[in-house]
Amino acid sequence: MNVRRDKQDKPAEPEQVNHLAETVRVRGERHRQWLREGEPTVAKRLAQIGVLGWIIVVPTLIGLFVGRWLDRMFESGLTITGALLMIGLGIGCWSAWKWMNGQ
């Protein structure tokens, strides 16, 4: 059976090869760590979940409290509170994302 190819196979770009090699290295490192340390305990998992929650909650609450203070100061209703609440939530979620990828 003949297979016709319309496009020629292109060699992988150096950036793709480097990214793939880095991904394989990181995965191998994590696997070796898992073999050494084994499965994390339930207590460690619960602690990680707690830390993750606080990473999101603290910036959100800071945005809420600073926003309420500024709204009272400028008598602007809830305008600044809403904006700073969303900014705090965004910062918290971004921080949680960075923390999860670092684990």
Cα-to-Cα separation, first versus last residue: 49 Å
Rg: 24 Å
How are helices and strands ordered from N to C?
A: HHH
Q: Strand count, sense and closure of the main sheet?
A: none
Overall residue-averaged pLDDT value: 88
Determine the oligomeric state from the structure: single chain
Roughly what percent helix?
A: over 70%
By secondary-structure content and strand pairing, the structural class works out as mainly alpha
Q: Please count the helical segments.
A: 3
Number of strands: 0
**Shape by Cα distribution:** flat
Strand content: under 5%
User: pLDDT under 50 segments (min length 5)?
Assistant: none
In a nutshell, what does this entry contain?
It is built from three helices and no strands. The protein has 103 residues and is an all-alpha fold.
Tell me what the structure shows.
By secondary structure, this protein is mainly alpha-helical. Helices cover 79% and strands 0% of the residues.
